[in-house]
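The step that takes the researchers longest sounds almost clerical: writing a folded protein down as plain text. Below is the pair of lines this work produces for a single protein:

——
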Amino acid sequence: MTVASRVPDLGALELLLAVVRLGSLGRAAAEVGVTQPAASARIRAMERQVGVALLERSPRGSHPTEAGALVAGWAQQVLDAAKALDAGIEALRERRDGRLRVVASLTVAEYLMPGWLVALKELHPGIAVTLRTANSTAVAEQVRGGEADVGFVEGARTPSGLSGTVVAADRLVVAVAARHRWARRRAGVTAAELAATPLVLREEGSGTREVLDRALASYGGTAPPLLQLASTTALKAAAVSGAGPVVVSELAIADEIAAGRLVAVPVPELDLSRPLRAVWPAGQRPAGPARDLLSLTRQGR
């Protein structure tokens, strides 16, 4: 017989202590939330388990035997230790649930994440959120490396070593300044013409660049870029200045098009739609605030 097989469970110990304190099996049963027959059966089972009588029953109530008093004293120590363990575990959970590390692509971070985080703060007022931005390749690397609890990427596939779910849909738009020659083309440009034209592009490794390269692969790929910039804001500024055509998210360019600073150029042959994904390490499931953030992204779809 192992030591553990002689030790009653915590619920039984709590019942024993309640009987000793109240002097009544019935009152103890009511306190712990069970019926008196169930409490009696539990005490008998505990006595069989430890091998000694623990209570003396009489018309005046129930009182501990000499052995029962000793077991009750030890039981109090066990319950105190269990409460300390529970408090420690709760503290660990609060520390985990009190922070959230997020890394997101620029499109998601700038145009979708603010609304999601405001909603998350309503659920977890005391949460501390760290939000970093990176291109999709770097986002995947940081999540795989344990530097973030959840990441958000752009692209056709979930990066290797990660699990993910689609949280939003987006579409890339070819845009030019109002004075650019393409701005007057109601029918837009062909995919071959777009592929042959030097563009103002995001850097390699970005989700935007990946989607565009994939879409133009059968047309020879993209021409060497006119400029290669690391932020959507820089791309839009370059396009407005007349540097050349850009390819950016329609989420990012809606205001410039509405104001007439930029013009969207159709490319009828190309499907430039793309999913935006939440990602996390493969084999794990998001928990706590990360799980709640993912739930909020789905509510917005």
Q: What stands out?
A: The two ends are 58 Å apart (CA to CA).
